[in-house]
Each structure stands twice: as structure tokens, then as C-alpha cells.
Amino acid sequence: MMSQVKFGQYAIEHIHEFRNELRDEASRALSGWAGKVAAVLLIFSSLITWYTLEGAGNPAAFYTLFTYVPVILLVLLYPILSLLASSLEKYAPTLVDAGTLGVLLGFCATLHFAFAPDQDPAARAQLHLDLSGQLNFVLLMTTALSYHTRFRITVIRNLSFAVVAVAVIYGISPEYLTDNFIQVLQGVSAGTIFAWLFFQRIQTRFYYKSIDADTRQHLYNQLSKLVYPHQLAMIKAGDELEDTMPVEKSQAIINVFDVQNSSDIKHERTKSFFLDVFRAFSQICMMGYRHNPLQSRAFRLKETGDGFISSIGYPFMAPDNTSLADHAVATALMMFRAFNTEVRQFQYTHPIKAAIGLAYNSVQGTFQSSGIKAYDLFGDALIQAYRYEEIRKQPEIEQVIRQRAAEEGLTHYNILIIQDVVFNSLHERYQQLFHRIDLQEVGYLIRQDAKARFVYFHILE
Predict the structure, then answer these.
(1) Are both 314 and 388 inside the same structural domain?
(2) Mean pLDDT of the chain
(3) Quick one: pLDDT at residue 2?
(4) Which terminus has fewer CB within 10 Å in the chain: N or C?
């Protein structure tokens, strides 16, 4: 009982959605098997009544074939009319009421034709007896089916139907009404009880259906925080998670971002600052995102406390026609601008600067073999990009960078360091930004890229 109260309260709180559910139920009842079965039963009832009255010599028997025609036409034509005018579906509950009232009036018309000729008292009494069961059944069926948001509306409707039935039958045959008044009360009462059970069933189904839909939507919303939109679409279409992202070996430029001396930042909003920076970077990565072909400005690989790693060219293709190197440098410069914007909003008392390392080499996608199957990248490009970002900390390299910054009048600066492969692939307008360091001259070897002869850097405010 408490559960039913909960279902009823939920339906009231979501009255608009509940009304739509009832409208759809009523529309399905009219156009589905329930309506077709009702139409067939009415046709058979008309034929049996005609055959019975015809056999009894009733001259008005022929007219009983048409007493339910309006209701039969409503049921048969509704699917077609609702296709031609979809707005008709919103009136489905009213049409159900009209149809059930039509059945009741059709039965009254049948009584009129059945009692039309003069009959001897014995034959008339037998006819009253034969039709008493039909009266009970018709009232039960016409009052049991209802699609209203409040049950009291159904009760009012049923009482109205009862009044109409009593008034019309009294006008046709007061004797028949007197003999079957108990049948009227029983039919309306039983129909109302069935209507209450029917109403409760719809309320219960609406509750569980809505809760299930809300749960699915919540899960969908949460899952969208873990995977990309195209992955959601593919999973929804039946694909396995492991088939939603590329896993073959390829080539890409890895971007490793890190905040210089991040451990020296002492502020109550430090965590919030980093989250704002990474949120801005994620938005940059998603620029131009689309599926088929799978592309975006960059692929956000991971956040590492004070660092951010992204991939250009794999698993998402670059969305423009420039070289991969040009695209990677342009993306890095966008990140520096976004970073500087967040630093200004942070309003820290000391300068905060960052560094980015870019390296081009092999990468490959993978899903973890067990547990939560997160997508990840591995390969030489990641190892080298880490190393190129950290190379600024080596005394030999740091001295060259600091000397160049002093020449430009900079004490605090952002640093972009790129591999020679990336530099050689750049357009001239980007190459002019960088300064070269001869690794042999400074006596430094990059073990993760032992064949590298030069490294290139660009400093900016």
C-alpha cells in the first residue's frame, strides 16, 4: 500500500510526463490489438443480435447491424488518421472515452430496436432476461477503460455514463430498467473497480519506467565523462568498448606540458588553478572534434598533477591541411596563451611559467587488459617528449636558454622545446621562432634520442 502511495505521488509530481504516458497508452489501445479485438467483438455482437432478432421475426432486426458502426469506424480509421495527422494522438484519451460512450449508446440503440415491436408478456420477459447479462457486461467494459491522470475524473466519468445509461434505457423501456437496475449498479461498480486496478497498474509501470529511464540517463551522463561522444554512439549501437578507439601502431607528436617549479606555488586555490588550466587545455584539444573520420586538434591523454599530456595526429587526425609539426606548434602556442590567461586570473604574487616538449615518433593505442579498461597510448614518442620537456633542467641546456632570455630582456618565461624532426618539418614562419642548441657543442647526449644532434627552443612571455 505504501508503494502504491509512492507511485501515485510520483505520478502527481511528474504530471506532464504521466499525461504523455497515458496519451501514448490510449493511442496504442486504439491502434493496437486491443482496439482491433474490440472492433471484431462488436461486429460479432451485431451479427449475433441481428440473427437472433431476425429469427424471432423482429422487423427492426436489420438496424441492429449498424448500432456500433461509429465505434468500429473509429477503431479501424484511427491508425490511418493518426498517420495523416499526428496531432490526433494527443486526443487519444478523449477518443477512448468517446468510443466507450459510443459502445454504451450503441447497446441502448440495440435495446430500442429489440423492444420496438409489440410482444406478448412472456416473450418480452424472456428478452429482458436474455439482455440483462449484456447490460452488465457492457457497463463493466465501458467504465473499466480510462486514461485520465486523476482517478476521480474516471469516477465522475463512470457516474456520468451510469446516469446516461439509466436515462436512455428508461426512455426505451422502463420495465427493462426496473428489472435490471441491480445489473446497472453491479456493472458500473465492477467497472470502476477494474478501472482503479488498471489505473494503479499504469501508475506503477510509469514509475518504474521513469526511474529506469532516469537511471539510464544518469549512467549515460556519467559515462560521457569517461569516453568520447563517438564511443558512446558506437557502444549504444552494440560495439565493444575496445573497438571504439584505434589500437594500431602509428606516428604522432606528443605534447608534454609541465609547470615550472610548481612545488613552490603556495596558495589555497592551487588545485583549482591547475583544474582551470587543464579544463582550458581540454577545450583546445576538442576543437574540430568529429567522428568519421575521427579527428580533433589534439587528443587529451592524461593529467599528471601539474602536467598535461596530449597527442597530435593519433588517435585523432588533425582537422586542418597543415603539416603535423605546424599543427603541433600552433596547438602548443594556443596552450601557452590559455595558460597565461589562467595565471592572470589566479593573481599569484610571483610569476608562474610553464614548459612544453614536443617529440615525433611511434605510438600505439591500447586498452588495459584487466579491470577498468581505460584507453592509453605508449611508444617512443611519449618517452622522448617527456625527455625534451625535462631537458630544460639540464645545466648545459638551461644556461643557453637563460642567456637567450637575457638577450630578450626576460627573467621569467615559458619554454617550448622541440625535437629536430619536428623543427625540420615546420613551415618557415614557425622555424623563425626557434633557436638551435648543438648538443655536441654543449656536451650533452639525449639517451632516449641518441641520434639527435640538435634541439630547438622558443621562449615567450
Answers:
(1) yes
(2) 87
(3) 46
(4) N
